[in-house]
Description:
It comes from Shewanella holmiensis. 34% of the residues lie in helices and 23% in strands. The chain is α/β, with parallel strands linked by helices. The protein folds into two domains: 24-104 and 211-251, 3-Layer(aba) Sandwich (D-Maltodextrin-Binding Protein, domain 2), CATH 3.40.190; 107-209, Periplasmic binding protein-like II (D-Maltodextrin-Binding Protein, domain 2, 3-Layer(aba) Sandwich). Strands 1, 2, 3, 4, 5, 6, 7, 8 and 9 form a nine-stranded mixed β-sheet that branches. Helix 2 packs antiparallel against helix 8. The longest helix has 16 residues, at 236-251.
Amino acid sequence: MKTITIAAVFLLAFPTLLWAKIPSEITLATTTWPPYTSGVSPEKPGIVYEYMTEILAQNGINLRIEAYPWSRAIKMASDNNDIHGLLTAVYEEAPKLLFTTTPIMNYKVNFYTAMDNNWRYQDQRSLDSMPSPLCIILGYGYGSPIDEFIHNEANKPKIHTLTGGNAQQRLVKMLEYKRVAVIIEDELVIQSYTNNTANIRFAGTLSDSPFYVAFNPNLSWCHDIVALLNKELAEPKNIQRLQQLVSEYTAEQP
């Protein structure tokens, strides 16, 4: 009993030993998702980009972030040993990965239509009258009930799926040019791309949901990094820093 107590005290005195298996550099994949994972300049690389880089640096870990089309980012995080996980994700997007249980932050998923369309999402029944096509991004998890709608084979003719790079920007442009009827995206992302000048309208909120960091479960240190991040993401000082970053980035938007 005395030996166990001494060991516990020693680990508490030198907490970095708890994470000894975690490498000094971690690589996470993401996609271009302003203002969360990308920004307007190298000095402003994105809210989550800055936040997670700072948190890991406090623990002696260098974070490398690589951007890809979203479906490719998910595949690389699952299959590529050089990519250790995803910077931001929800479980529905990558169920094979190991997620933190403490979220990074929340995001608000909204519907948008052209200005001359009066459809509005209120609940699941609203989807029956939703104009088509609905434009989505390959690999994205939007949450219930829209995920069930998307995966229903009967709804395939009503859906246009975007693949490749710059998907968010293309998504907004397709709605502006009325090539699609409805899009779904986070409100801060929409603000980043439209500058409040696009000819699109808010058409209801699907969800206000958390997103997380996720890691390849085959990594020998995946449980250690998840435990570390669960602790750090719940720290009041880190939450305060996140709020500061959000304020800085949203203040820069028109």
